[in-house]
Amino acid sequence: MPKKLLLAALGIIAGCLALLSAAGHAQSLSAAGRNWPVFGGTPGGTHYSSLKQIDRSNVARLKEVWRYDTNEAGGLETSPIVVDGVVYAYTPTQEVIALDAANGKLKWEFKSGIVGLQPARGLAYWSDGAKGQGKDKRILAGIMNYVYALNAATGKVIPSFGDHGRIDLRDNLGRDPSLQSIALTSPGVIYKDLIIVGGREPETLPAPPGDIRAYDVRTGKMRWIFHTIPHPGEPGYDTWPKNAWKTGGSANNWAGMSVDVKRGIVYVPTGSAVPDFYGASRIGNDLFADSLIALHAETGKRIWSFQDVHHDLWDRDLPAAPALLTVRRNGKQIPAVAQTTKQGFVYVFNRLNGKPLFPIAYRKYPPSTVPGEVAASEQPLPTLPAPYARQRLTADMLTDRTPAAHKWALAQFKTFRSDGQFVPFSLGFKTVQFPGFDGGAEWGGPAVDPQTGVVYVNSNDVPWTGELAKHTAAPGPRATYLSQCSVCHGENRMGSPPQFPSLAQIGQHMTREQIAATIHNGRGRMPGFPNLKGPELAALLTYLQRGPAKDFTSVDKPAAPTQYVFTGYEKFRDPDGYPAVKPPWGTLNAIDLNTGKYVWKIPFGEYPRLAVQGIKNTGTENYGGPIVTAGGLVFIGATDFDNKFHAYDKATGKLLWEATLPFAGNATPATYEVNGRQYVVIAAGGGKDLSTPSGGVYVAFALPQ
User: Fold this and answer.
1) Would 577 be classed as within a structural domain?
2) What is the pLDDT of residues 89-139, one digit of tens each?
3) 3-state SS, one letter per residue, for 142-167
4) Average of pLDDT values for 364-384?
């Protein structure tokens, strides 16, 4: 062939290949738009969809098109993933299900034989092909302390993964696996052929370290580990007491992570170290607790980190995966990461080097008055954006719902210490935590619109109180209760329902065996306590069933080394059960992260019993996050009491549509496309309002055909 003809032919071939490549890329982008293949919508945790069939002009016509009832009670917090016309999700007991995304019919279900009693917020998907379109397609499912690899088409276990199809997260932590409590409540994240995981852990000692681990998706072998409680020679080791890595616990990632796939960086938010509220056993700043950590996804090596709470005494875990976005500054595009917090702050950093994109001020705070405690002298606060939750409870903020409620609230308030954030808890009187222990922001996470740089975050705005008391119990079952249980259920076993139920009458509605199983395995917000066994467990069970008794035999271990214990979470509510402060009790916020200014802010949620009295737009506590779409919409359920699913105009915050779900939609929705039709699906399970039943139903909506 003549040279010119050869060159021409090669040019034609190259052009064809380029066209095929472009077509393939366009197809993969289209598939990415049609699917919701990652918890959080995208690896960067944006909760964003490019779909726009449903938009401002037609969303009011949205109708329910299918629902799938798991026929289980207990509530759902799952954000489903959707790949190629299949919805993958959990039931309340952590059976894994695959549904036809067009009609909600069951395709397969996986029953592990383990009754899952912890929250299960989502699954992970991996395929060996480019853009997730290979032949080997897997669902990675956390069920309690295990991670299973399932065939995405059949739901069958893949036996070559780990130990006959699963790995045990209690292993490889440097502690006796049989005594560890860990559960994968938020899914691991995928980077190439790795699944990177954290885990939920106890709020009291003993607890395992919150190490971040990466496993080979094909084999289940551990490839790397990052120690959040540093070992000797590792950065941060000097911020803990010597050898804390052997005995300390938590500083864990339970909220999920985000991945910059292009740059190979995983962003890991962590929670507090234990014990939560009395830190004499962990004097120091406690790196890498309460930190946002950027790690090389391939190796686990730290790139940068930021600790948002030093020596946490307030249980201020970073509650959600951060969102990756591009911020515009002075005509430049800056790769950024935005982290929401329980405190009501949004921290925004250059995600390559950790440089703050808004100034951070370090403020001084008072020392602790509790013997043995050394509170951090200062804490970092972003100067912008302004907090999305109120920061200090004052007398003029107390409820005026009725004169009687106001009088009661004022009398209570006069007994409190209320000096704002980061005031250490004291002995003998209650200190206000505002926002409360449930935020501010929670695990639902924010949504980010990449077109505008606006972040959407829902927030709780209710004060709680807390105090410490001296651990005076002699060795015995009460000492065990105070060291392991009182942090949630209170010194007097009354709890703070619904988040922390009362145990005062537990013997009347649970058998001894059921109580023991719950202690070992955990349930709902409660982690498991496998360390309690034998005579120690038997005595605790008797104590819980019968209450304090003088004739209990001391069969406990020696009294816990913790000299002071938290007396329990207490929400500041009036005698009728409503928050004892003026509304809003929950908000939905839109914040421009280019400028740090608010676009809009609205009350979010209602109490039906107040709404019928004409008291509307109060806002309520809310769990579950928003998603945002190119159609100009923000979809969110989340509100605890009104069972509503909402669509708002993302530009103005105007409510454009809402539907009533069978139970509260305490989960983050997902949106996807099948056969040219856009759907929005949400899990409805309730469980936050104890006056109403809970369940487990997936409900999907679409425009009429």
Assistant:
1) no
2) 999 999 999 999 999 999 999 999 999 888 999 999 999 987 667 899 999
3) EECCEEEEEECCCCCECCCCCCCCEE
4) 97
CA-to-CA dists, residue 382 to 319, 334, 366, 461, 536, angstroms: 17, 18, 19, 19, 46
Give yes or no for residue 532 having a pLDDT over 90.
Answer: no
Are the beta carbons of 438 and 342 closer than 8 angstroms? yes
Instruction: Say if residues 447 and 423 touch (Cβ distance below 8 Å).
Output: no
DSSP 239: G
Residues facing 501 on adjacent strands: none
Question: What is the distance between the alpha carbons of residues 283 and 261, in angstroms, rounded to a whole number?
Answer: 37
Report DSSP letters for 512-541, one per residue.
HHHHHHHHHH-BTTBPP-TT--HHHHHHHH
Measured between alpha carbons, how far is 436 from 445 in angstroms, rounded to an integer? 17
Residue 639, both tokens? 């509100």
Please name the residue ranges forming H helices in 314-461: 403-413
In angstroms, the CA 356 to CA 599 distance is 21
pLDDT for 531: 76
Residues 424, 316 contacting (CB under 8 angstroms): no
Phi and psi at 572, nearest 5°, equal: -85, 95
Tens digit of pLDDT for each residue in 23-79? 333 333 335 589 999 999 999 999 999 999 999 999 999 999 999 999 999 999 999
Q: Which two tokens stand for residue 665?
A: 């939609």
**Residue 231 Cα distances to 243, 246, 250, 654, angstroms:** 8, 9, 14, 51
Beta bridge partners of 380: 362
The CA distance from 446 to 682, in Å, is 16
Residues 104 and 145 in one domain: yes
Q: What is the pLDDT of residue 419?
A: 97
**Furthest-apart CA atoms within the chain: distance in Å:** 105
528 pLDDT tier (thresholds 50, 70, 90): confident
What pLDDT, on a 0 to 100 scale, did the predictor assign at position 486?
Answer: 72
Asked whether residue 106 is assigned to any structural domain, the reply reads yes
Q: What is the pLDDT of residue 586?
A: 98
What is the DSSP-derived secondary structure letter of residue 582? P
DSSP state, residue 494: -
| Rounded-to-5 percentages of helix, strand, coil across the chain | 15, 30, 55
**Claim to verify: residue 670 and residue 523 sit in the same structural domain:** no
Residue 201 falls inside a structural domain: yes
Residue 21 amino acid letter: S
Number of domains present in the structure of the chain:
3
Note whether residue 326 is domain-resident: no
Look up the domain containing 679 and give its range. 56-77+623-705
Exposed/middle/buried for residue 242 (C-beta within 10 Å: 0-12, 13-18, 19+): exposed
Taking the CB of residue 154, how many other CB atoms lie within 10 A of it?
12
pTM: 0.89
> pLDDT digits over 360-370, tens only?
999 999 999 99
> Taking 70 as the threshold, does the pLDDT of residue 261 lie above it?
yes
* Inter-residue contact 451 to 551 (CB < 8 Å): no
pLDDT tens profile 452-472:
999 999 999 999 999 999 876
Which tokens go with 537?
């467990």
Is the link from the previous residue into 206 a cis peptide, with omega within 30 of 0? yes
C-alpha dist (Å) from residue 555 to 340, 411, 633, 663: 45, 43, 60, 44
Same-domain status, 488 and 539: yes
Q: What is the mean pLDDT of residues 633-650?
A: 98
Q: How many other β-carbons are positioned within 10 Å of the β-carbon of residue 165?
A: 19
